[in-house]
Amino acid sequence: MTPNEFRTLVYQKFMEHWDIGPISLYTFDNEKFTPPDPESPLTANSGKRWVRLCVRHSDSRQKTIGPVGSRKFEHIARVVLQIFTVPNTGTNDPHGLNRALPERFHTNLTRRDACRGQSSYRERGTAEGWYMAEATVTYTYDEIR
User: Fold this and answer.
1) 105, 117 in Cβ contact below 8 A?
2) What are the domain boundaries of the chain?
């Protein structure tokens, strides 16, 4: 599977299973999105939490030697869910959404060549009117080329 095929698979899995409570606002990395205003009662979706799903590729290595078309390469990618909630409302909401990412991505993405690894959670703090936290799940997968 290529890096773009992996990203597409992650986005499809997310779209199939993202139904957590009142959250309906989400975006994918590097796509046009206007977040709601966290405080203005006159703005649509004001005060609603939202998330951004990203796939970050890091290390890759060649696992086998052979002719072109039969070499195996291993890729490592992190699936990152950036969680944005209204500041000064505590941390229960982001923690609940954090638990949702590994639950949705607890499998090997229905493919034997995409294996789940570690998951993590980081509270990033408040910036630009939002409280942000980040949930991540790491995967390794192979590409034949």
Assistant:
1) no
2) 3-144
User: Looking at residues 95-101, what average pLDDT do you find?
Assistant: 69
Reported as a single tens digit per residue, the pLDDT across 7-26 is 998 898 888 777 655 566 88
Compute CA distances 38 → 23, 43, 129, whole Å: 14, 9, 6
Task: Supply the pLDDT for residue 14.
Answer: 83
Tokens encoding 116 = 């789940």
DSSP state, residue 15: H
Tell me the DSSP string of 44-113.
TTTT--EEEEEEEEEEEEE----STTS-EEEEEEEEEEEEEE-TTS-SHHHHHHHHHHHHHT-S-TT-TT
- Which of the following CATH numbers is that of domain 3-144: 3.30.2000.20, 1.10.260.40, 1.20.1250.20, 3.40.30.10? 3.30.2000.20
Q: Could you read off the pLDDT of 72-95 as tens digits, one per residue?
A: 999 999 999 898 888 877 777 777
